[in-house]
Specification:
Strand content: 15-25%
Order of helices and strands: HEEHEHEHEHEHEH
Largest sheet: 5 strands, parallel
Shape: globular
CATH topology of one domain: Rossmann fold
Helix content: 25-40%
Number of helices: 7
CATH architecture of one domain: 3-Layer(aba) Sandwich
Distance between the termini: 36 Å
Structural class: alpha/beta
Strand order of the largest sheet: 5-4-3-6-7
CATH superfamily of one domain: Vaccinia Virus protein VP39
Length: about 190
């Protein structure tokens, strides 16, 4: 793998910033992700992320840690944090920025090898993106549940992609997505 994301983070971290990341999906056009945004501090985070960090407690797993901004904030607040990301470059940046416990591993691999349990599992900045499809959601949530302490919590956010299905006249194309009850999936 080329780890374009990780290389971009490392370039930014090392002062070699030249351009932002351009993303695209099969249901959207190109979008720009400013690298500086991934290195923001708590006060520059959206209110939703701030609230998730305020609700965090105990031993925390930060999945898809990226540049480590959430992990760093929680460390500064005295939490024990484990940051994981599938990007080697992202983990290198986490460590360079001071994240104490960071590991390059995907969440599916981690759930297979880890004996750790966590009081809080974070999947922020469209954390649902790791599921890739709605069909995969139950598998991921069951694996995440195995990593939780008995009263643990998963704090996750998702982007509202409704705009991608908007017609030119302001209406919406029909989206055939089944409703999901999280409690029934992970019980």
């Amino acid at each position: 793998m080329k780890d374009i994301f990780g290389k971009a983070l490392l370039d930014y971290q090392n002062g070699n910033y030249t351009e932002d990341i351009i993303t695209a999906t099969n249901i959207s056009g190109e979008d720009t992700l400013p690298l500086k945004y991934l290195f923001r501090n708590y006060t520059d985070m959206p209110k939703l992320e701030q609230k998730a960090l305020q609700l965090s407690n105990g031993h925390v797993l930060d999945i898809g840690a990226g540049a480590g901004s959430h992990s760093l904030y929680l460390q500064e607040q005295g939490f024990e944090v484990k940051a994981i990301d599938h990007s080697e470059g992202a983990i290198a940046v986490c460590k360079l920025r001071g994240v104490i416990n960071a590991e390059k591993i995907s969440i599916l691999e981690y759930t297979e090898v880890s004996e750790d349990t966590f009081d809080t599992i974070l999947l922020l900045m469209n954390g649902t993106g790791i599921f890739q499809t709605i069909k995969a959601l139950p598998e991921y949530l069951k694996k995440l549940k195995r990593l939780l302490t008995p009263n643990g919590q998963i704090l996750i956010d998702s982007s509202d992609i409704k705009y991608m299905f908007e017609d030119e006249d302001g209406g919406f194309r029909k989206i055939s997505t089944p409703a999901i009850m999280v409690n029934s999936i992970i019980s």
